Amino acid sequence: MTGNPIFTFVWCGIFASLQPVQSFIMPNRLNNFNDVKINETFDFIVIGSGPSGSVIANRLSEVPEWKVLLIEAGGIALPIVEAPGICSAFQFTNYDWGYRTQQQDGFCSGCINKTLKYAHGKALGGSTIINFMIHVRGNRRDYDRWEAMGNPGWSYEEVLPYFLKSEDAHLDKSDPGYHNSGGYLSVTDVPYRTKLVDYVVQAAQEAGYPYVDYNGKEQMGVSYVQAHLRNGRRCSADKAFLRPVMDRKNLKILTNSRVVKILIDPVTKETYGVKFAKRKKYYYAFAKKEVISSAGGLNSPQLLMLSGVGPKDHLEELDIPVLADLPVGKKMYDHSTFLGILFEINQKIVFVYDEVITSIKEITDFAVLGKGQITSIGGVEALLYFKSNVSTDPDPLYPDMEFIVLGASISADNGVIMRKMFNIPIETYNKIWKKYETTPAYQIMPMLVHPRSVGYIKLKSKNPFHWPKSYANFFSDPENHDIKTYIAAIREMQRLNRTPTMRKLGATLITIPIPGE
C-alpha cells in the first residue's frame, strides 16, 4: 500500500470504470420512496436488509397476494464494494454504522482506548457489503442441539435442504449431497491463492488434520476457504437475493429509512406497524400480519427496547413505557480472536499489496476476468477447525477453536487499513508489525467457536439515534475457560509450525511482547 488511502479509492474508480454500468446501476431497480404511500398497509414489514432480511423479503414476496415492505437504514452500495481484496477498507465508510464496544478491563488492553471496533453493515445487503465473504454454515451438532432444546424444525437434517436451495456452489472439492447449484447465493473457491497457504494446508495434514469440506459431512479439519464470490467479485445478500426479484410488484424496498419504533398494541401485545425516519421526517407503515426485525445483533435489541420490550428496570430508568419485561440484550455471545500470533518465513510467497494495487495486469485481470490477487477475500485463505485439549464437550467431532489463515501479516497494507480495523495503536504496530511490511511473514488468527463469556447490550438513552452501548465482556467466564482455550490453541499453532513442511519455510514465531496495561 502506498500509505495513502486515497490511492486505494482511485484504484477502485479505475475498476468501476472498466465494468459495464448496467451491471450495477439498473433503472428503477428500487421501488422508490414515492411509491410507498403515507401510512400504507402491508402484509409483512421486514426491518433490515442483511442476509436474514434479504432472504425473508425474497421468500415472502414469492406469494403474489402478500404485500411486503423491506426497510433499510443505509443506501445502495457503489461498485467499489465488489473488490474482495480491499474489503477491510469499507468498514471506514458510510456503509458501516461505526459502532465500538464500551471500555472494560480484562481485554483489548493493547487497543486504542481499550475499545473494539464492531463492524456492522449499513447499506442494502447489510454486513454482507463490508464483511470478508467467508462461507460457513456452522456445525451440524449446533442445529441438532438447538432442536433438542425445544426448537422443532431446527435439526441439521431439516435445515440442510434450505442451505442447498439457496446455494449455487462451484467448488473444486466438496462432499456429495452437501452442496447444490442453481440457487441465489454464489459459493466458490477463491480464484487466487498464495503459495504460503498451500504450505499451511499441507502442514495441517502432516499434523494429523484431514482435508475436509467444512460445510460438508464433518467440519473438523483443514480446508481452503469457501467464499461468497461470483466471477471473482463479492456476492452480497443484495446481489444474491434482492436484485433478482426487484421486478416483483408486491415487494417495496425503502433505503435510507431508519425504523425508530415497532408499533405494539399495549393490550393485545401484537405488532401492527413501524415508525421510521426518512429525510428528517417521521412516517408510519402498517402490517396486517407481521413485523420482522432482522436489523442485526446490535440494532434489533436496541429497537425492541426502544419499543418497550426489554428489562423493566432498564426501560423505566430511561422513561420508556414497558410493554413486556423480557431479558432483551442480556445475553450476547461474540467470537473473539487474537492477533498476536505472527510467523516470519524465509520465502517471498505472501501477499504484498504494493505489488498488487499498482499492477496494471492485476487490475485488468480482476476488472475484465474476475481473476488475480484482487479476488482474495481480505487475505483470508484457509480455515482449520479442531477440538483443543481443554475442551469439556463429550463429542470428539465438536470443535471449540478455528484457525483463520492469512496469506500475509496484517501489515501487508503498510498499516493503512488493517491496523485501524483492529484498533491497534501506531506505537504497538511499529514495534511488532512494521518490519513485516517488507519482510515475509504470515499470521494465523485463532477464534473461539463456542465462547463461554457473555456480553450484553444496553440503551444509551431513549433517543433512537444514539448508539446502543455494547459490552463484549471477553474473558469474563468464571472458570477462565476461554483463556485456557486460547492458550491451548496457541500451543497447537506452535505444533503446526514444527511440521516438516513449515520447517522448509523457516517459520519462526515472533516473540516481541505485546504492549498493554
TrEMBL record:
Secretion signal, residue range per the UniProt entry: 1-23
InterPro entries: FAD/NAD-bd_sf, GMC_OxRdtase, GMC_OxRdtase_N
Residue numbers binding FAD: 259
Domain of life: Eukaryota
Keywords for this protein: FAD, Flavoprotein, Signal
One Pfam family matching this protein: GMC_oxred_N
Cofactor: FAD
Domain Glucose-methanol-choline oxidoreductase N-terminal: 45-336
GO molecular function: flavin adenine dinucleotide binding; oxidoreductase activity, acting on CH-OH group of donors
Membership in a protein family: Belongs to the GMC oxidoreductase family.
PANTHER family, per the entry: GLUCOSE-METHANOL-CHOLINE GMC OXIDOREDUCTASE, RE36204P-RELATED
Protein name in the entry: Glucose-methanol-choline oxidoreductase N-terminal domain-containing protein
Organism: Phyllotreta striolata (Striped flea beetle)
